Structure formats: structure tokens, C-alpha cells
Amino acid sequence: MAITLTENAAKHVRNFLAKRGKGIGLRVGVRTSGCSGMSYKLEYADEAGGDDIQFVSCGVTVLVDSKSLPYVDGMILDYTREGLNEGFKFNNPNVKNECGCGESFSV
Predict the structure, then answer these.
(1) pLDDT tens digits, residue range 33-56?
(2) Which end of the chain, C or N, has fewer beta carbons within 10 A?
């Protein structure tokens, strides 16, 4: 069980945490939302929660709550720039269906 960051994603997280001046890593989770049923939630974590599972990828701590882990296990998180758009890209092998706008998914 693991979540992997690409070097681009890890660099972005490290830079943001340095600018922010605090934080231990990136929290990844899912919530019920969107037209396909679930959406990702990302936030910078200042501390680990009681049910968090921690991974280290490219030197960055990734925290996932135990309820979200089955939905994101094996995911590769990238950070991309395409034209004027930039942001995290989720490469999740568990996804069976995505909505047309790419904001939600189902497993």
C-alpha cells in the first residue's frame, strides 16, 4: 500500500511548505462529492492525525486517513503545467469511471 509522488510533485510540495514556513507534508484523501461519487482532497498537513498512514516519497511525507487509503492505494501524484494551467494530476489505478469535467471519480 502506497502513494507515490513524482519528482515534480515532490518539488512543488517542498517549495510550498518552505514558503509556508510550517508543515510536515501533504495530506491526501477522498470525499463523497461530484457527479461520479468521489473527489480528491489535498491539504498541507501540520501534524499527523490518529488514523493517518504515512508514506515518504521523494523525500516528502504523504499522509492518508485509513478510510481513504483503499480508494487511493497505488496512486501516483504528479504536478503538471500545461499552457496556462498547472496543478496536481491524479494517476489512480483504482478509478473505474470519471466524470466529464475530471473533478470526480468512482471505483
Answers:
(1) 766 678 889 999 999 988 999 999
(2) N
